[in-house]
Automatic annotation (TrEMBL):
<dbReference type="InterPro" id="IPR027417">
    <property type="entry name" value="P-loop_NTPase"/>
</dbReference>
<feature type="domain" description="ABC transporter">
    <location>
        <begin position="7"/>
        <end position="231"/>
    </location>
</feature>
<dbReference type="InterPro" id="IPR003439">
    <property type="entry name" value="ABC_transporter-like_ATP-bd"/>
</dbReference>
<dbReference type="InterPro" id="IPR017871">
    <property type="entry name" value="ABC_transporter-like_CS"/>
</dbReference>
<dbReference type="GO" id="GO:0005886">
    <property type="term" value="C:plasma membrane"/>
</dbReference>
<dbReference type="InterPro" id="IPR014324">
    <property type="entry name" value="ABC_heterocyst_DevA"/>
</dbReference>
<dbReference type="GO" id="GO:0016887">
    <property type="term" value="F:ATP hydrolysis activity"/>
</dbReference>
<keyword id="KW-0067">ATP-binding</keyword>
<dbReference type="GO" id="GO:0022857">
    <property type="term" value="F:transmembrane transporter activity"/>
</dbReference>
<keyword id="KW-0813">Transport</keyword>
<dbReference type="InterPro" id="IPR015854">
    <property type="entry name" value="ABC_transpr_LolD-like"/>
</dbReference>
<dbReference type="Pfam" id="PF00005">
    <property type="entry name" value="ABC_tran"/>
</dbReference>
<keyword id="KW-0547">Nucleotide-binding</keyword>
<dbReference type="InterPro" id="IPR017911">
    <property type="entry name" value="MacB-like_ATP-bd"/>
</dbReference>
<dbReference type="GO" id="GO:0098796">
    <property type="term" value="C:membrane protein complex"/>
</dbReference>
<dbReference type="GO" id="GO:0005524">
    <property type="term" value="F:ATP binding"/>
</dbReference>
<dbReference type="InterPro" id="IPR003593">
    <property type="entry name" value="AAA+_ATPase"/>
</dbReference>
Length: 231
């Protein structure tokens, strides 16, 4: 069976700054990511991992080359198109970015309501089910400040996956967690992603979770220098 890439990157460079301060950050990135893959992106601080992740996520615009995500070309795309593509991507960041004045359930529900396809009651039921899937059925009405770091990150995972996105981008999702919670959180992401058939691209410095990846990409000074495929 021919696998179709859901991300195709060709000759992508990226620069920050203007005039004399202009600095090249990414150099001729070429990459294909396939449906259902779990990919880990590693590399030293400043090597360009987050820049690449935010480009793929439509959070900044490509300046050169070609970047296709979920069959859309992002190079030259208008803000409106980028917003539409972002709705099909789940984001998980190091800081969970939960809204402190909303309960766990309301935080998840908010992501669903952006799609406006469900009634309030239906959205609430789906959000509760998602929190149950991440093992937080007893915490649905808790506020983020009353949850542990690992629990907050689980809520963030529930929020990222509740819309069944085809692509999940995670930037150091375990950085704020102890090793046991970190491991639990990525195993949960991997399990839910395989269940939903979505692709995960995760930036991490955490050597303890490398075994969950199908492929590991190494970045150095803005270049992808090496790829390892897990057996
Ligand atoms: N908005 C920006 N303006 C100017 N320079 C930036 C900007 N964002 C990132 N950079 C620079 O681009 C380079 C790559 O940053 P990036 O955050 O992509 O690296 P990273 O590999 O994710 O690093 P880390 O592991 O520390 O998060 C760094 O030198 C950084 O200082």
């Amino acid at each position: 069976m021919l696998r179709e890439p859901i991300v195709t990157i060709q000759n992508l460079d990226h620069y920050f700054g203007e005039g004399g301060l202009r600095k090249q950050i990414l150099f001729d990135i070429n990459l294909e990511i396939y449906s259902g893959e779990v990919i880990i992106l590693m590399g030293q601080s400043g090597s360009g991992k987050t820049t690449l992740l935010t480009l793929i996520g439509g959070l900044r615009s490509p300046q050169t080359g070609s970047l296709q995500v979920l069959r859309n070309e992002l190079y030259g795309a208008k803000e409106k198109q980028l917003v539409k593509i972002r709705r099909n991507i789940g984001y998980i960041f190091q800081a969970h970015n939960l809204l402190p004045f909303l309960t766990a359930c309301q935080n998840v529900q908010m992501a669903l309501e952006l799609h406006k396809k469900f009634s309030y009651q239906k959205a609430q039921a789906i959000s509760k089910a998602m929190l149950e899937a991440v093992g937080l059925e007893h915490k649905v009405n808790y506020y983020p400040n009353d949850l542990s770091g690992g629990q907050k990150q689980r809520v963030a995972i529930a929020r990222a996956l509740v819309n069944h996105p085809q692509l999940v981008l995670a930037d150091e999702p375990t950085a704020a967690l102890d090793s046991k919670s970190g491991r639990d959180v990525v195993e949960l992401m991997q399990h839910l992603a395989k269940e939903q058939g979505c692709t995960i691209l995760m930036v991490t410095h955490d050597n303890r979770i490398l075994d969950i990846a199908d492929r590991i990409l190494h970045m150095e000074d803005g270049h992808i220098v090496d790829q390892e495929v897990s057996i």
